[in-house]
Target: Glutathione S-transferase-like protein
Amino acid sequence: MPDLSTFPITQRWPALHPDRLQLYAAPTPNGVKVSIMLEETGLAYEPHLVDISNNESKDPAFVSLNPNGRIPAIIDPAGPDGNPIAIWESGAILLYLADKTGQLNSSAPAQRYETLAWVFFQVSGVGPTFGQLGFFLKFAGKDYEDKRPRQRFIDESKRLLGVLDRQLEGREWLVDDYSIADIATLGWVNALAEVYAAGDILGLGEYSNVQTWLRRGLARPAVQRGLRIPARPA
Model:
């Protein structure tokens, strides 16, 4: 049985199944990237809810795993050298899991790097921009008198949606096959309407290729399961 006791986070969130991959996350657009990936690959894992509304990601035990204090993070008890390994940053986790399982990223160099480009597009552009838009539309930012910051993120969100829409013209997925690029992006696009109520202000219906892609992604059983993991308390 793997010994995870050297990771302080396991004192705060004990591993009931230390032989399984340990996921520390919340069902946010960033967190569900990893839960969807795990559901798609079929890896055995144990989810732990990190309640970011109570700043649990700033708990020293969590920060010991991820110095940036942001979900998600994982511990794989069966790392590349047979020893446990900790991985943080959602894009790095997706790439690690794709490499570990040989799934959801091509082994052909050209397609592999194109897929990674779209993953990095999400982590550098889509996630930060849509997240800031959500802050201004849904959370404390809606009370700001100065509406220029909000408009900036509305405009940039529309631009990014346009990039996605053009890429999806004539395609089912962002690259040639369903991949970590789609997994990285689905939760964020879904959140625009379902969490941030940004559908009207962004004119989401105008991005028909994005809408078709989103419906196709949400129809996947693993995506539906992953969007609810880790489960919030009833």
Remarks:
- Strands lie at 21-25, 45-49, 73-76, 85-88.
- The first strand starts at residue 21 and ends at 25.
- The radius of gyration is 18 Å.
- The chain has ten helices and four strands.
